[in-house]
Design a protein that fits this description.
three-stranded antiparallel beta sheet, alpha/beta, Rossmann fold, six-stranded parallel beta sheet, SIR2/SIRT2 'Small Domain'
């Protein structure tokens, strides 16, 4: 499929010369690797919405059920592989002097594709965090033998190192993402519904700061009216085309 990049091409020389590019990715990017988005028809687990399980209240009420849900998700993440969208973004990092990748995804596929330092706004499902002492460790490659798991240091409950609904984003990550949005010359919003705050405000912040905003998503989202250009197809197709056009191998 041929992708018409004519709306973006005028800014390519500036990006090659060092003007900053920022990219925000959402669940739609990882959906192409077979990971569910939880915002479509398949967004249920054992009859419950993911949004009702991924909360501090749900964990307090039934940590075993929440952990069963996350072990199921981890199994899918461990089996997933980066797709062409992840790979294209890693390729772009190799040719653009200033590029910041911001992701709402928690699956680590950007790192697996070769991206060096994505800003993980919502954490990473392949890490554990102690709800007591706060120690963060890499998750074991296999499911826990007993649920709910406990911290080996203080014996308090472990939880996935992700941001649940109702929780505040990590301050350092959010500040870094805001700074990148405000300072970007071009801002790409790829594969996100643009409805989950505060990440959904980054495109607005970039546009208000003078960035050229582009949306890559099969369906229109609330950010679309602010976009200078939209691409109504998959992120893998568009990002691959951009990377090739910019000479990223």
């Amino acid at each position: 499929m041929s992708i018409d990049l004519s709306s973006l091409v005028p800014y390519f020389s500036d990006l090659r010369a060092g003007r900053p590019l920022a990219v925000l990715t959402g669940a739609g990017v990882s959906a192409e690797s077979g990971l569910p988005t939880f915002r479509g028809a398949g967004g249920l687990w054992e009859g419950q919405r993911a949004e009702d399980l991924a909360t501090p209240g749900a964990f307090a009420r039934d940590p075993v059920r929440v952990w069963r849900f996350y072990e199921w998700r981890r199994e899918k993440v461990r089996a997933a592989r980066p797709n062409d969208a992840h790979l294209a973004l890693a390729r772009l990092e190799g040719v653009l002097p200033r590029m910041t990748l911001i992701t709402q995804n928690v699956d680590g596929l950007h790192q697996a594709a070769g991206s060096r330092r994505p800003i993980e706004l919502h954490g990473n499902i392949l890490r554990d965090r102690c709800s007591g002492c706060g120690t963060v460790t890499a998750a074991a490659p296999t499911p826990f033998a007993t649920l709910p798991p406990r911290c080996s240091r203080c014996s308090e409950l472990l939880r996935p190192d992700v941001v649940w609904f109702g929780e505040v984003l990590p301050a350092a990550s959010w500040h870094e993402a805001e700074t990148a949005a405000e300072g970007s010359a071009v801002f790409l919003v790829a594969g996100t519904s643009s409805v989950v705050a505060p990440a959904s405000t980054l495109g607005l912040l970039a546009a208000r700061s003078g960035a050229h905003l582009f949306e890559i998503n099969p369906e229109a989202t609330p950010i679309a009216p602010l976009a200078e250009g939209v691409f109504r197809t998959s992120a893998s197709e568009v990002l691959s085309a951009i990377a090739t056009a910019l000479g990223a191998r």
